[in-house]
Design brief:
By secondary structure, the protein is an alpha/beta fold. 25% of the residues lie in helices and 17% in strands. The strands form 9 sheets. The chain has a 23-stranded mixed sheet. Helix 12 links the parallel strand 9 and strand 10. Helix 4 (129-142) packs antiparallel against helix 5, helix 14 runs parallel beside helix 16 (416-427) and helix 17 (434-443) crosses helix 21. The protein is globular and about 95 Å long. The two termini are 60 Å apart.
Length: 1077
């Protein structure tokens, strides 16, 4: 892989020191001839397909012989692709590579796939042309032997069947090469179940039950004890087959979630619907039932344990379209039990109606040993000296994957003595007692790591890591070390969004450890996670000195917190969604060891409650060890007590959504250890000058406040990394901003008062990675912008006063520019790292253009050189585009562009998934789309055409599922609907002149007629679904299994129609249908 710095690196996450890995493809080419054309395009296409490809770099050409990195790259590759161009033979290095490739292909049975770019195979036979001349020149320089070796290599490759550019065109040629390469590599490529021990046989068994070739709807239940691998199996199957379904969703940890949130998640993933307003679970069930019955769905319901969950999420097979599959994982099948005369309630039938059952049994002994070895030795089998003891330990786990993983991780790099001691402990525990086996790992932990484990098990699963981190740090636990220990022991995981996770078996273990601290008396335990029990314990004074964590949630009748004077060792107190809480009892300030205090109101419920006493008392300064204070969503907070400055150990202070908080006390500057300050959507309109004394502050969030100016002292926050000023009243960025030398993220979006030029001093932010200036009145960026060498994302969306762009740093990967004042389309061809690019001279509101720009001609030829692009949006209001070929953008997946004349778009990449064309003014040449086999959605917006005639090309695109025609104000007719397929969806929005939708092609092409269609004459093919909104002239609609109509008055109140599925001959004909229902 060739990087900007000129170094050659492999793909797939390898480092520069790891060139000895096995490559799959080696490209040999003459740089000046083809590097920026077919070579880059072919390289990008193979990279996107997951092929590990080496692209030759001229900087590796040192000396007179192939050696070092280049030698290893050729030797390790499996397929060689020489790209023969006019001057290929004029490069001695190309000839050396070719000769060595031929030698390797004979010795190791490797494959050579030649491409002829502007030359024929006859050139390689040296009868005529530049190749013969080049060899004669090299004969004098290197001698006859070398020349003969190169000549034989050329002649041999000339006899291999390859591809010639003149026969196919570049895009088609790349497609053919890619297919050939994938075909030859497929047997050797990784399988989706690699690394998952013993899963293949289980997957095959479940796949047999799924029977994907049938059109019935099936429920497959995977059941077994906790930790045995049900979820892992379900995830593997989901990844393997989900692409075969129209819609897909994986709902995890159902047992721990409420029904409504699960319904919202399902609706969002499958239907793209986010609930607005309040609905209950029954309404959610009805929405799922109505909207999924025409979709082929793959749905996984993970860790289900109640019948009500099933009935509200996937009640019956009739809810889903033909071929749908619902996979359920559960620890028991009692809630699925069928009424039977058999007295044994534990008998589960192999199948019953739509339900098929698969029982997860313990792992086979060889698979169990392999999994254990992966965690204990980081290899598939134990060393010879450890085989016997490993088998004995594996036997004690009962083949439970979770136990194998945890105990194996525990013993990694430990002595034989430790192994023997652990084996003795395991053998004392019955095989059936999973928790006691897992507890062995817990007992090996240091005290502070045990405490972190118990905190996560009782309170922190699913929560962000940072607040807990500050609490553990205040306890002296070294949280980074503790978390790393727990991760390496497979006891916890930290997900990508920085949230903590723990397997439910381990969660239950942690809570059982706490319960065993004192079984009969809750108040004598260290942690209380059940709000009802916690409130009862505190109110009735049933606590002792061991209680460390109290969690009070949704105590809706609690107006004043109970007396905490007997909880002197309390370290964490959470008061969450106590809607009527008005007062914190003064005893809280006696909790001298409290590390974390969280008070979260239910903003929607308590907004009209106005406490008569301050929610936070002046004496809060007595909490000398407090490190985290979160008071959020509570109108009872009108001001902070001056004593807050006495919380000298405070590291995180969050007051977000306390709308009645108007100011901060000057004493805030005493919090010298504060790392995080969050004032989002408070009533604060100014910061005290003492804010500059927060020398440890790293995150400052001021969004949606009334702050118009920052104090000069803000420049003293030299440790600040993240600053959010979005949607404030800020008028300018201060010139001393350069003193924030560690700032990485700056959000100033939505600041309507920010105008004029950004100060040139911004270049002093040498660590800045993300800058968001969208929705501001900024008119000019400084020339110094190019000195922001670490900048990755720059958002200038809806900066309507911005006229020109300076040179931008080449480090950018994400750039958005939207300005109606743009004077010309900038040439951004040097930004070769761009992944996501948006350029527009339009202003939008509600998806429609409300402000038009002034660019009349747009030359976008440079776009073809941005080979890393995945998302491209180029929208100009009144611009004629020069001929543009985008076929080289082989990683592009989303394209949205203005295209008045589709013929000016001379090529599109086959990688496209979503395509939007705007302002099309001439008939669409559908053949342009013929290579878009990955296209899933096509949008046509704001096109001033009177007729759009579909084409058979669209019906041949196997992945095309949805077509949208929107805001075409002059459109009168859609024709040739028969070219679409039954599984496709057609949506028509805001086309007020649309009269008819025809099944047949247009006969005359004359769109001038306004004659209304004759009722009852349309015979339209059946689509999967049809939507029409805001089409006030539309009288006839196509035959679809699911139809939705809104604001189409000519259809006489037609609201929605769902058709029963069945053979076409059983359906009512369109002529006989009453369209008013």
């Amino acid at each position: 892989m060739e990087l900007l710095g000129g170094n050659s690196l492999p793909l797939c996450g390898e480092s520069s020191s790891s060139l000895r890995r096995d490559y799959e493809v080696f490209l040999s080419f003459r740089g000046p001839d083809t590097r920026l054309t077919i070579t880059d395009s072919l390289y990008a296409a193979m990279s996107q397909a997951g092929i590990c490809v080496f692209k030759d770099d001229e900087k590796l050409h040192v000396g007179e012989e192939i050696g070092g990195e280049l030698l290893r790259a050729i030797s390790n590759s499996k397929i060689y692709i020489p790209i023969f161009s006019k001057n290929y033979a004029s490069s001695k290095w190309c000839l050396r590579e070719l000769a060595y490739m031929v030698e390797c292909s004979k010795r190791d049975e490797k494959v050579i796939l030649p491409i002829f770019y502007g030359v024929d195979a006859s050139y390689l036979k040296l009868r005529t042309g530049s190749y013969g001349k080049a060899l004669r020149k090299y004969e004098r320089q290197f001698g006859k032997d070398t020349m003969k070796q190169w000549e034989e290599a050329l002649r041999e490759v000339a006899g291999i069947k390859g591809w010639n550019l003149k026969d196919h065109g570049q895009h088609k040629l790349i497609t053919l090469v890619l297919e050939e390469v994938l075909g030859k590599l497929t047997p050797k490529q990784r399988n989706w179940c690699d690394g998952l021990v013993g899963i293949r046989d289980r997957m095959e068994a479940v796949m047999e039950l799924l029977s994907l070739g049938t059109s019935d709807v099936r429920f497959v239940v995977i059941h077994g004890m906790g930790g045995i691998g049900k979820t892992t199996l379900a995830k593997s199957i989901f990844k393997c087959i989900s692409s075969r379904f129209q819609s897909r969703s994986f709902l995890s940890n159902i047992r721990d979630k409420d029904i409504l949130s699960l319904q919202q998640e399902l609706s969002c993933e499958i239907l793209g619907i986010r609930y607005r307003g309040t609905i209950d679970a029954d309404e959610g069930r009805d929405m799922i039932k109505e909207r999924l019955n025409n979709k082929k769905v793959i749905l996984v319901l993970d860790d289900m344990d109640k019948e009500d969950q099933l009935m509200k999420l996937a009640g019956e097979s009739s809810w889903f379209g033909p071929g749908s599959r619902i996979i359920i994982t559960t620890r028991n099948t009692y809630f699925l039990a069928l009424e039977t005369d058999d007295q044994d309630d534990n008998i589960i039938p192999l199948n019953h109606r739509d339900f098929y059952f698969y029982e997860m049994e313990e792992m086979q002994s060889d698979h169990a040993l392999q999994l254990f070895s992966k965690h204990s030795f980081k290899r598939d089998s134990p060393p010879y000296d450890y085989i016997d003891i490993s088998r004995k330990i594996v036997k004690t786990t009962g083949g439970l994957p979770l136990a194998l993983e945890v105990i194996g991780s525990l013993l990694h790099s430990k002595s034989m003595r430790t192994w023997k001691e652990t084996l003795k402990e395991l053998e004392r525990v019955p095989n059936q007692d999973v928790q006691r086996k897992l507890k062995i790992s817990y007992t090996k932990l240091k005290y502070e790591h045990q405490q972190i484990f118990l905190d996560i098990a009782c309170h922190c699963i699913g929560y962000e890591r940072i607040p807990a981190y500050y609490m553990w740090k205040a306890c002296g636990f070294l949280p980074n070390t503790g978390l790393n220990v727990l991760i390496h022991l497979s006891l916890i995981k930290v997900f990508k969004d920085d949230r903590l996770w723990m397997h439910d078996q381990l969660r239950d273990l942690g809570r059982e450890i706490v319960r065993q601290e004192c079984v009969p008396h809750h108040g004598k335990r260290s942690r209380l996670w059940c709000p009802t029990i916690a409130l009862n314990v505190v109110q009735n004074n049933l606590v002792n000195d061991e209680l460390k964590v109290i969690y009070l949630a949704s105590c809706n009748y609690l107006k004043r917190t109970p007396n905490f004077s007997n909880c002197m060792n309390l370290k964490k107190l959470v008061l969450k969604d106590c809607a009527r809480l008005e007062e914190i009892d003064g005893s809280i300030n006696q909790l001298g060891r409290l590390k974390c205090l969280e008070i979260k109101g239910n903003y929607l419920l308590e907004r009209n409650i106005f406490p008569t006493v301050p929610l936070l008392l002046d004496s809060i300064g007595g909490l000398k060890f407090l490190s985290v204070l979160k008071v959020e969503r509570h109108n009872g907070v009108r001001k902070l007590p001056h004593s807050i400055g006495e919380l000298l150990r405070l590291e995180k202070l969050s007051l977000r959504l306390c709308c009645n908080l108007k100011e901060l006390p000057n004493s805030i500057g005493e919090l010298r250890l504060l790392h995080h300050l969050d004032l989002l959507q408070t009533g604060v309109d100014a910061l005290p000058d003492s804010i500059g004394r927060l020398e440890s502050l790293r995150e400052l969030i001021l969004s949606f406040t009334e702050i118009a100016k920052l104090p000069h002292s803000i420049g003293n926050l030299r440790q600040l990394k993240f600053m959010d000023l979005s949607y404030t009243k800020i008028r300018e960025l201060w010139k001393s901003i350069q003193t924030l030398e560690n700032l990485e993220v700056l959000w100033v979006n939505g600041c309507e008062n920010l105008e004029g030029e950004i100060p040139s001093e911004i270049a002093g932010l040498s660590q800045l990675k993300i800058l968001n200036l969208s929705q501001t009145k900024v008119s000019r960026l400084p020339m110094t912008m190019k000195r922001l060498f670490n900048l990755r994302e720059l958002d200038l969306g809806h900066c309507m006063w911005l006229q020109l762009l300076p040179d931008l740093p080449t480090s950018l990967t994400n750039l958005k520019i939207k300005s109606s004042s743009l004077q010309a389309v900038p040439d951004l061809s040097n930004l070769t790292n761009l992944d996501d690019l948006t350029i527009s001279d339009c202003g939008y509101f509600g998806g429609n253009i409300i402000v038009r720009g002034q660019i009349l001609h747009s030359n976008l030829e440079w776009l073809g050189r941005l080979h890393q692009l995945h998302v491209l949006n180029v929208v100009f209001s009144d611009s004629n585009m020069h001929p543009t070929n985008l076929s080289a953008l082989c990683q592009l997946q989303q394209l949205d562009m203005t295209c008045a004349d589709p013929q000016s778009l001379t090529g599109l990449p086959s990688s496209l998934v979503v395509l939007t064309l705007r302002d099309v003014k001439t008939p669409i040449t559908w053949s342009l789309f013929s290579n878009l086999n990955n296209l899933s959605k096509l949008n046509l917006r704001e096109c001033p055409l009177r007729e759009i005639e579909f084409d058979d090309v669209l019906g041949q695109l196997e992945n095309l599922r949805r077509l949208v025609v929107a805001s075409c104000k002059s459109l009168e007719r859609l024709s040739n609907l028969t070219s679409l397929k039954e599984q496709q969806h057609l949506s028509v929005y805001e086309c007020p002149q649309l009269i008819e939708i025809k099944s047949e092609p247009s006969l005359t092409g004359d769109c001038s007629s306004t004659e209304r269609p004759i009722p009852g004459t349309l015979k339209l093919e059946t689509l999967c679904s049809f939507d029409a909104q805001g089409c006030k002239s539309l009288q006839k609609i196509p035959n679809a299994r699911d139809t939705f109509v809104f604001r189409c008055p000519m259809l006489d109140g037609f609201a929605r129609r769902s058709r029963p599925l069945g053979p076409p001959r059983l359906r009512d004909s369109p002529e006989k249908e009453d369209l008013s229902h």
